[in-house]
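User: Some background: our group keeps a shared notebook of sequences we're curious about, and every so often someone picks one and asks for a predicted structure to add to the entry. Today it's my turn. The entry only has the sequence so far, pasted here. Could you supply the structure so I can complete it?
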Amino acid sequence: MMAKRSIKPARHASEERAPAKKKGQEKQSAREQPRTHDRRSRAGKAVRGDATRKYEEAIAAAANDNQFYVLRLYITGSTPRSASAIMTIRRLCEEYLKGRYNLEVVDIYQQPVLAKGEQIIAAPTLIKKLPTPLRKVVGDLSNEERVLFGLDIHPRSDA
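Assistant: Of course. Here's the predicted structure to add to the notebook entry:
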């Protein structure tokens, strides 16, 4: 009679156990290991980030100089306040957006459907449809700085 042999399955290399470590010989994590070839210093990264930010701002400013604006002004009839809003917006557009804007004036008494579609709750209201993002300036439009900020137009400083 033949004796039974017990066959143990062969161990794969990945199943082998690592030798036990002695006390105090824990493996250093990647963050604790000393850097041997770091090419960039922290100061270099900060300077590079600042330069990148300035470059992106310059590109955005140049893009704003060439963008076409689509504006819609909602007014209420032929009131003095409506006339003042129209004159103010036309003057600002000619001064800051000469040849790069389309201004549509909508009387909400004559075209209430347009006002309802844009959810106009007060007049005068100026809406900047293009360039994105859409912006609304509601109420008194005589404050030039507030209107320019609402349109995302940055006045040029000739200092």
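Suggested note for the entry: The chain has four helices and four strands. The chain has a mean pLDDT of 78.
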